[in-house]
Amino acid sequence: MELESIFKEAAEVKAVDFISLLDNVIDIVEEGELDHAEARNGLVILESKGKSIVIGDLHGDSYTLREILETSKFTTYLNNDGKLICLGDYGDRGFDSLTVYYTLLKLKELNPRKIILLIGNHEGVFKIPVYPHDIIEQIYLRFGEEYNEIYEKLITLWSQLPYTVIIPEKYILLHGGVPIELNSIDDISKAREKYPLNSIFEEILWSDPMDEGGVYPSPRGAGKLFGPDITRKTLNIVNAKTLIRSHEPCIEGVESIQENLTLTVFSCKGIYYNKNAAYLPIDLKEEAKNSYELALEAIKL
Ligand SMILES: [Mn+2]
Predict the structure, then answer these.
(1) How far is the CA of 144 from the centre of ligand 1 (A)?
(2) Were 35 and a residue from 45, 53, 113, 215 both cysteine, which residue would form a disulfide, CB within 3.0 to 4.6 Å?
């Protein structure tokens, strides 16, 4: 199916068809079957195969999503063992959250074993409020009275999306940051069921890295600020070299921080005054790169 027809459908879709797409994708995500991957609850362990594309926060920016999809050759990658990995925060803030959702859900329906949609903190299954959470208004303006059924189904979807990808010996990918108190990979796979008994799930979705060492409370009111010492400890535990995350705008759309242990990728424009959005093509077959080397390969839009 051509991208152009997906975007055309997104603009015209009726509530009943949006709901049936959501139902299909909820079933697909619940089964959790992916090529060359093992899913353990919300943790995906991915084999080192294929060129893949990593997309950061979209926040309703359907223009940039379309530009990424049209220019990245992602379908060629998908046909050669690659994946499309999105790091969460699909809706809210931007003006076109529903087109972003429709497009990604349709791609997931068409390529169920090749697309990984991670949950971000805006995929609100927390007791912690996100602001603004305007996707409900966007659904209401678009679909009227059926907004509630659609929103309920989105919540069901969010509650089942995976939250971490690990490519052994190479990378860990997640929305916000690494957990402070982590003893094993198992702690990650059990994080959602343990929430809120411990804060691992919350920190994966809400935390932000800083260049100074240590741990500080986050101004976001959830998650933590964590230093490169915490990142290095976690990378050792999960047997990875580099953290790839999203969650914070950066002026170039991509930024290497924390002694080149951590890469931020941010894929929307317009609302945060960042000059560029970016996405990351990444060849998982190649030897692991640090975040400085990855940043050089990111594509800025
Ligand atoms: Mn976020």
Answers:
(1) 27
(2) 113
Q: Is there a contact between 17 and 151 (Cβ–Cβ < 8 Å)?
A: no
Overall number of domains in the chain: 1
- Tell me which DSSP letter residue 266 carries: B
Give me the pLDDT at residue 128, please: 84
* CA 121 – ligand 1 centroid, Å: 5
Which residue range(s) make up the domain with 217?
Answer: 3-300
14 Cβ contact partners less than 8 Å away, ≥ 6 residues apart: none
Q: What is the CATH number of the domain that holds 55?
A: 3.60.21.10
Cβ atoms of 178 and 172 within 8 Å: the answer is yes
Cα(124) to centroid(ligand 1), Å:
11
The residues of the chain scoring below 50 in pLDDT are: none
CA of 219 to the centre of ligand 1 (A): 13
Q: What is the pLDDT of residue 145?
A: 93
Q: What is the pTM of this model?
A: 0.97
What is the predicted pLDDT for the residue at 22?
Answer: 98
